[in-house]
Amino acid sequence: MKRILFSICLFVGLASVSMAQSAQYESVMTKNVTMLDDSANFNPDRLLEIGNTFERIAAAEKTQWLPFYYASYCYVMSALMQRDNDKVDDLADKAAVNIEQAEAISPKNDEINCIKSLVATSRIRVDPPTRGMKYGMESAELLAQANQINQENPRVYMLQGQSLFYTPEQFGGSKTEAKKKFQTALEKFSAFKPASAIAPHWGEAYTKGLLAQIK
């Protein structure tokens, strides 16, 4: 009888600890994801700070893919916004390491493919003439794979449109085709429901901004 009671108490105790840890994880993640919803934080240095925080969360929560995902997101966005091209590859490398760790936990994930596509895109800006074809094709292939996984993900269409928008017409870009992608993305955003408060949900305002430039 004592053994049964001990087992029950142990189980309850472990469950309580697990619930507390889960609540703490949700709380700290929500706090930092909310920061990414604030445009005031979208500058290279601030994104690096938030990315470092997500890396620390990831180090403590090694079975969760979202901290690695958001760390990578912050680093690649910082890379894309850098004025100093000498810093881009290092940031892209940091983003790549984190998103690979996220993928190891959650394979065949369309959201992860979107970030991997952005990492490839960020590398182009260092030297477009020599890197454009290689990383442009890599980025497009990753988005095509993401679309196969989930055709309802608005970020896939947004990123495809972004590529068409910024690529010169002589290299396959098209504002007309970009507009179609952005319109599709906004249709998908209107129906999109994130799996949770900390699940990826970025991109709608940015899509509207790019579409407005075309109009």
From TrEMBL:
Presence of the UniProt keyword Signal in the record: yes
Signal peptide extent: 1-20
Organism field: Chitinophaga ginsengisoli
Keyword Signal among record annotations: yes
Keywords tagged on the record: Signal
Name the record gives this protein: Tetratricopeptide repeat protein
